[in-house]
Design a protein that fits this description.
The chain has helices spanning 16-26, 31-39, 44-64, 132-172, and strands spanning 2-12, 74-83, 87-92, 98-103, 106-115. With 173 residues, the chain is α+β, with helices and mostly antiparallel strands. It has two domains: 2-115, Ribosomal Protein L22, Chain A (Alpha-Beta Complex), CATH 3.90.470.10; 145-173. The longest helix is centred in the last third of the chain and has 41 residues, at 132-172. The mean pLDDT is 83.
């Protein structure tokens, strides 16, 4: 069963251009490899991106369950940056001039996907159903017990027959 999950960070105080430089390092990689790369990348964007990748992996695992999906099984399927609204500030200069300063923000989206283990079929009381080999082994054991029991009953009948013969001989004398 293919599992997908997404994590999104909005209005991150970082230029989309700076973030794209780091995103290109981890695009299409497994989650564990991407986190290792991001931990040793000396960019401030790497720290924010690592948090987002961890959140996407946690969302995928929480959606399916920890027993069925591990972080090692996940890969980054999509990762992209969109520009957010730009904040504008004024920078005052001499002789009455004003220059505009643009504070750029971005939205980061990370999608991960992984193959979750299929659920095992369960019996009536939560026990797994017996396979053909287990059923065959159980029937062989049952037959072996019956043979032992039948051989014991034959011995008992032979012994009782001998006892009755011995009793009848004692009576004749």
């Amino acid at each position: 069963m293919l599992t997908q999950a997404r994590a999104r960070v909005r209005y991150l105080k970082m230029s989309p251009r700076k973030m794209r430089r780091v995103i290109d390092l981890v695009k299409g990689r497994p989650v564990q490899d991407a986190l290792n790369i991001l931990n040793y990348t000396p960019k401030s964007a790497a720290h924010q991106l690592a948090k987002t990748v961890k959140a996407a992996a946690a969302n995928a695992i929480a959606g399916v369950g920890t027993a069925k999906l591990k972080a090692e099984d996940l890969m980054i399927s999509k990762i992209y940056v969109d520009s957010a609204p730009t904040g504008k500030r004024a920078r005052f200069q001499s002789m009455g001039r004003v220059f505009r300063v643009r504070k750029r923000y971005c939205h980061v989206t990370v999608e991960v996907q992984g193959e979750a283990e299929a659920e095992k079929p369960r019996g009536r009381k939560g026990k797994a159903e017996k396979t053909a080999d287990e059923a065959k082994g159980a029937s062989e054991k049952k037959e072996a017990k019956e043979k032992v029991v039948s051989s014991k009953s034959e011995k008992e009948t032979i012994e009782t027959a001998e006892e009755t013969e011995a009793d009848s001989e004692d009576k004749k004398e």
